[in-house]
Amino acid sequence: MQAPFLFTVNAEALLATWPPPAAPNGAPIIYELWLAPGSLAQADGGPAVPGITPGERLVAAGPGTRFVVRGLAPYTQYSLHVRAANPQAAAASPWATARTAGAPPAGLGAPEVRRTAAGLLARWSPPAQPNGIIASYQVRGTHGSGWRPCWLLVLLLHVRGRYPPGLGTARSVPSNG
To answer: Which ranges of the chain have pLDDT less than 70?
Structure first.
């Protein structure tokens, strides 16, 4: 049995497809799609099945060869495999791995901004759920007595592949709108 082909649908879903086994032994086949231990799908698990690793979760069962696994976390890697069974025999595929798409960060608090001799200093904590790789932060504020909108351009330091949790320098730039 071949490993399933996994495709990212969106930030909360993966599509799994698989070909039927080369030698199905004649009887109708029921397919079971299993999620690896440690994967975070919000699907109910089935009963323990011989030949299945403890902790695996059954996410689909039936005669079809494709299934959309929903209720997944954004930008998270998942491993799935298929088990084909009929009254004569059962076979399991190797594992296949895919990552859900990223989503906008969630749980980002307001920055702390204070005036310094050189301008403004902005500090913030990273979002509680980054939901992907954060490449930059954009801080918007106001300035002047008329409270006209402006953008604060934030320069970040890149350290060993990770962005620091919200330390940057900023300068005020009037917006056009």
So the answer is: 38-55, 139-177
